[in-house]
Write a structure and sequence with these properties.
Layout (H helix, E strand, L loop, with lengths): L1 E10 L3 H8 L4 H4 L7 E5 L9 E5 L19 E9 L3 E8 L2 E11 L5 E9 L6 H25 L5 E5 L4 H12 L3 E6 L8 E3 L9 H5 L3 E4 L11 H24 L5 E7 L22 H11 L2 H5 L4 E6 L1 E3 L4 H11 L12 E2 L1 E3 H12 L6 E5 L5 E2 H12 L10 H16 L8 H5 L9 H9 L12
Helix pairs in contact: 3-10, 4-10, 6-7, 11-14
């Protein structure tokens, strides 16, 4: 039997509200760190006593090892054992021969807030003690930040259509919208497999009429990944997938006379890969290069909606920090084996944003009616490559002194991919987002990395969840 792990937090919202938040549809995605366990069985939105969900954990090194997806760890089974409304939730977990419980108690804190007391006890895997402690911190911090956003916006329940809902951002966005009480319809290109899914075909411009006509807002996150090699085929897919999805939705909003807002994904690639000594704002001229061309065409494809008077927001996203995907997921394994270091020249800037702040920025854009046009979704404190490497090494408790040779990343993304994605120098302003009333949970790099990587100050630094 292992020593129990305990943590207490004060959340400045009424107990009934906080307790309800813990059991909302979407709570699994929002209250579990992205990338630390994929649901492979059960109903993630079912919150009745006896409901079971099966999770597939992964090891951080898997993201960097070809074929490592075959090296599956044993699944974790989680069963909801106790729900005492307003007071207590108990989840029983199994992992191989290990059995343990995670108990959460809710009491009034005396100032109108809620005292949340969390306890992990039983025969949990001994190597994961520090990760459990960090996970409890993540859970409480996430609940407080999400509740604060929802309370601040005070949006009425709305019907939101989301394209690209299965990706890194879309998964978390749909979960947060559901937890906030909104009705979400997900557009999928394959056969619908869930009640909230509807098929569409952006390549042929087809989207169901009633889906758009009945929506209060449309969020478009659809697009082929830019994380692979920049082959001619991939470049065509990167461009065409974005233009097709955007023009399809923009035309639908125009043709049906819909008053729904369009919240459109975009990127800071608009400014070009390298703009040294400039502070880039939404008013800055477009840059040059493949990604600048893509973003320009991507945003231009929304013209039918813009010209029809549809409120349209282009969320120009920086480097999104997440353990579940993107550049950070590929860097962490290198640091864990002692081979981490800066990418690119030391004094070149990178403009980043934590995945949870990014998701909240999308929700903010949805329910801030005065916000329109391009908006930079970046944290207000960009850093140099040298500072990023130093901070990531500190968080992971690993060395970060030696720069990563360019041939390594080039093997993954090719010469042009390296030029457009890694050898970049972009110092991008977040002033417009801040001026619109958005509040960052992690405006500086180290807390953002600690949050997404479950690495609290003074943690022992275990490598597996």
């Amino acid at each position: 039997m292992n020593q129990p792990i305990e943590r207490a937090s004060d959340i400045p919202f009424p107990r009934e509200r906080v307790f309800d938040w813990w059991l909302r549809p979407g709570s699994h995605e929002r209250l579990s760190p992205p990338g630390w366990g994929e649901v492979i069985g059960g109903d993630r939105d079912a919150r009745q006593v006896g409901d079971t969900v099966t999770l597939q954990p992964s090891h951080p090194l898997m993201s960097a090892i070809p074929g490592a997806s075959l090296l599956k760890l044993r699944p974790v089974t989680a069963r909801l054992d106790v729900v005492e409304p307003g007071e207590r939730i108990v989840v029983a977990l199994e992992h191989g021969r290990s059995r343990w419980t995670e108990e959460t108690r809710f009491t009034d804190s005396g100032d109108g807030g809620t005292r949340v007391e969390q306890r992990v006890s039983g025969d949990y895997p001994a190597s994961t003690g520090d990760a459990f402690q960090a996970q409890l911190t993540f859970l409480a911090d996430q609940a407080e930040a999400d509740l604060a956003l929802v309370e601040r916006l005070a949006a009425r329940p709305s019907r939101i259509v989301v394209a690209g809902s299965s990706g890194l951002i879309g998964t978390q966005l749909v979960a947060l919208l559901k937890m906030a009480g909104h009705d979400v319809t997900r557009l999928v290109r394959g056969t619908p497999e869930a009640p909230d899914e509807v098929r569409w075909d952006p390549a042929s411009g087809e989207v169901p009429t009633d889906v758009i006509a009945g929506a209060d807002a449309v969020v478009n996150l659809a697009g082929h990944t830019i994380g692979g090699r920049f082959t001619d085929r991939n470049k065509k897919l990167i461009l065409q997938s974005r233009v097709d999805s955007t023009s399809t939705l923009a035309n639908a909003l125009r043709d049906r006379g819909s008053s729904a807002a369009l919240i459109q994904a975009s990127g800071i690639g608009f400014y070009g890969a390298r703009r040294p000594a400039e502070l880039l704002t939404e008013e800055s001229r477009r840059g040059s290069g493949f990604l600048a061309d893509v973003v320009d065409a991507w945003e231009a494809a929304a013209a039918p909606a813009v010209d029809a008077g549809v409120r349209t927001v282009f969320v120009r996203t920086g480097i999104a920090l997440s353990y579940a995907g993107g550049a950070l997921q590929r860097q962490v394994p290198l640091y864990l084996v002692g081979a981490g270091g800066r990418l690119g020249k030391a004094q070149q800037y990178q403009s980043w944003i934590g995945i949870d702040d990014l998701v909240r920025a999308y929700v903010h854009a949805l329910f801030t009616p005065d916000l329109s046009g391009p908006i930079n979704a970046v944290a207000p404190n960009p850093v140099t490559n040298a500072k990023f490497a130093e901070t990531l090494g500190k968080v992971l408790q690993r060395p970060s002194l030696l720069p990563t040779p360019s041939f390594g990343p080039k093997l993954i993304v090719g010469d042009e991919g390296y030029d457009q994605l890694i050898d970049t120098d972009q110092r991008v302003s977040a002033d417009k987002l801040l001026a619109s009333g958005f509040e960052f949970t992690h405006p500086t790099l180290e807390p953002a990395l600690r949050h997404t990587l479950l690495r609290q100050s003074g943690a022992g630094g275990h490598d597996s969840p």
